[in-house]
């Protein structure tokens, strides 16, 4: 079995692919025996690779399977990230698993042999139903979960409570057909939960590789992702005098009212002199056009994850974000650069009537647990009247 056969990774977003590259870099830099891993408690970042030193030349070879979504922005970023992964010596396989009723089954048949042969499996989205379906074929004794943003916080919490894996912003629905689908899928979901549960006596190991403030449990191990690969490969950035805003897809996921989000962005722009708005890859063109018209902001659609864009620069001396993944990852990626990352809280009045019951507490938790950030009160971006 070749090195790329021994570790098989499944990613569905650009950020997941970035974090697989970070994991491979950390794995190559760690001493034999998995030094730097802690069991059951938060660990400190493994900083054995200085930011100014080139990354390890012989990084752990990984066969990365990209299961792309259908939206063009995500696919474009994924293709650019795939190029970076190949430059690092990893093998990248692009596997369409969406876009038709038979696509998932064709992809499963194409991947089944590799899944069964892998000695270690790395996944970027434990909530993905397709990834959970692939896990029913896994024979590997080692499973690694890399960040899919703040969802990692919910993943660790739900597995600790023994709950089924459900995204924090998802609400129930679908009527009888939805309940039938859930019932039919239940055995797959149960198998996935068992795969994510370490079994020391049976040699089944689970590692979480994360920038999020999580406490692992039940024999899981944790390695902190401090973006050493990103810092070694890019930057430091040139800083501009202005402030940059970071967009969010909270409107697109049905969590925040569109009018209140627009007013919040307008207030932040006026208060902090922002000039650029880095759009989330899932933000709709109509929403971005409305934001530009209302604020005069330059809308930037990044071609790579924001951690890489910010590290390459130019970037504002202050970056303002709503509660999201970047308030946890950017302080790592931009350490030592002089950039201030600020987070603006979400006022409960901004939430839609259909937002999940978990939305308010989850977003507050994302804000409250962020490290090395400046916290802005929600009142700095008041809701529309």
Structure description:
The protein has helices at residues 3-6, 14-29, 72-87, 103-117, 129-135, 151-161, 175-195, 228-233, 258-272, 285-295, 306-312, 326-333, 359-368; strands at residues 7-11, 38-39, 63-66, 91-94, 120-123, 142-146, 205-210, 221-224, 239-246, 274-278, 298-300, 315-321, 340-344, 374-376. With 385 residues, the chain is of the alpha/beta class. The chain is built from 13 helices and 14 strands.
In the residues, how many domains can be counted?
2
The strand line-up of the biggest sheet is 2-8-7-6-5-1-3-4
Structural class: alpha/beta
Sheet with the most strands? 8 strands, mixed
User: Looking at the structure, what is the overall shape?
Assistant: globular
Spatial gap, N to C terminus: 63 Å
Spans with pLDDT under 50 lasting ≥5 residues?
A: 39-59, 379-385
DSSP strand content: 15-25%
Rg (C-alpha, Å) = 20 Å
Counting H and I runs of at least 4 residues, what is the number of helices? 13
Q: Spell the H/E element sequence.
A: HEHEEHEHEHEHHEEHEHEHEHEHEHE
Topology:
Layout: H1 3-6, E1 7-11, H2 14-29, E2 38-39, E3 63-66, H3 72-87, E4 91-94, H4 103-117, E5 120-123, H5 129-135, E6 142-146, H6 151-161, H7 175-195, E7 205-210, E8 221-224, H8 228-233, E9 239-246, H9 258-272, E10 274-278, H10 285-295, E11 298-300, H11 306-312, E12 315-321, H12 326-333, E13 340-344, H13 359-368, E14 374-376
Parallel strand pairs: 1-3, 1-5, 3-4, 5-6, 6-7, 7-8, 9-10, 9-12, 10-11, 12-13, 13-14
Antiparallel strand pairs: 2-8
């Amino acid at each position: 079995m070749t090195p790329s056969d021994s570790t098989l990774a499944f990613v569905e977003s650009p950020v997941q692919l970035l974090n697989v590259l970070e994991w491979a870099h950390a794995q190559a830099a760690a001493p034999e025996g998995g030094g730097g891993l802690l069991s059951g408690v938060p660990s400190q970042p493994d900083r054995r690779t200085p930011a100014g030193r080139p990354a390890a030349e012989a990084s752990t070879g990984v066969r990365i399977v990209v299961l792309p979504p259908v939206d063009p922005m995500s696919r474009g970023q994924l293709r650019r990230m795939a190029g970076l992964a190949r430059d690092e010596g990893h093998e990248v396989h692009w596997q369409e698993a969406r876009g038709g009723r038979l696509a998932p089954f064709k992809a499963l048949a194409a991947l089944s042999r590799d899944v069964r042969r892998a000695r270690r499996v790395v996944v970027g989205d434990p909530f993905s139903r397709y990834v959970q379906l692939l896990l029913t074929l896994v024979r590997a004794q080692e499973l690694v979960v890399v960040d899919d943003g703040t969802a990692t916080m919910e993943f660790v919490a739900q597995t600790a409570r023994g709950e089924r894996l459900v995204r924090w912003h998802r609400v129930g629905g679908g009527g009888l057909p939805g309940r039938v689908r859930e019932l039919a899928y239940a055995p797959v979901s149960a198998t996935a939960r068992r795969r994510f549960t370490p079994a020391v006596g049976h040699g089944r190991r689970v590692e979480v590789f994360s920038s999020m403030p999580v406490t692992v449990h039940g024999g899981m191990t944790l390695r902190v992702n401090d973006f050493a690969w990103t810092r070694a490969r890019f930057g430091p950035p040139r800083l501009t005098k202005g402030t940059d805003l970071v967009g969010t897809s909270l409107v697109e996921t049905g969590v925040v009212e569109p009018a209140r989000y627009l007013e919040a962005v307008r207030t932040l722009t006026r208060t902090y002199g922002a000039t650029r708005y880095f759009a989330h890859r899932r933000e709709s063109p109509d929403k971005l056009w409305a934001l530009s018209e209302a604020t005069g902001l330059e809308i930037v659609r990044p071609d790579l994850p924001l951690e890489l864009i910010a590290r390459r620069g130019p970037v504002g001396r202050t970056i303002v974000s709503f509660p999201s993944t970047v308030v946890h990852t950017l302080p790592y990626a931009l350490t030592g650069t002089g950039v201030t990352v600020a987070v603006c809280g979400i006022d409960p009045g901004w939430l839609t009537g259909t937002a999940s019951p978990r939305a308010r507490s989850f977003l507050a938790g994302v804000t409250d647990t962020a490290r090395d950030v400046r916290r802005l009160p929600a009142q700095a971006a008041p809701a529309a009247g």
